[in-house]
């Protein structure tokens, strides 16, 4: 199954989601990421954080949802609607869920405070992805309604 992590800029949240997902994914599951208005670059703090967590950073780049290598089966939006951010709506016959996370690219303050914002985003996404992989995916991938219900509940996980 192909999972698309989608946000606006494809420089932080969706890249972190893609990398964490692929790092933890069992055989048959693969993530990709994209943005509705990609920035054209991955935020260096995202790459540094992934590397420090032992997750490969090779091959990640900011890209448009118009350039996906394959069609997704599941789309996970990561934009934070609480911040009045417009969440892109992927059009296509896919299962959709929203795992909103604040964009650490907009964090301000000291280097430590900005690093903490990136770490919080990482921890939330990792906890949600770990919860996703704890599901009985062999059964749920054949029951889209049940899978959507479980994925929508995962959106409430915070750390």
TrEMBL record:
PANTHER family: ARSENATE REDUCTASE. This is Arsenate reductase. Keywords: Arsenical resistance, Oxidoreductase. InterPro entries: Ptyr_pPase, Ptyr_pPase_sf. Its EC number is 1.20.4.1. SMART domains: LMWPc (SM00226). Pfam families: LMWPc. One of its GO terms (molecular function) is arsenate reductase (glutaredoxin) activity.
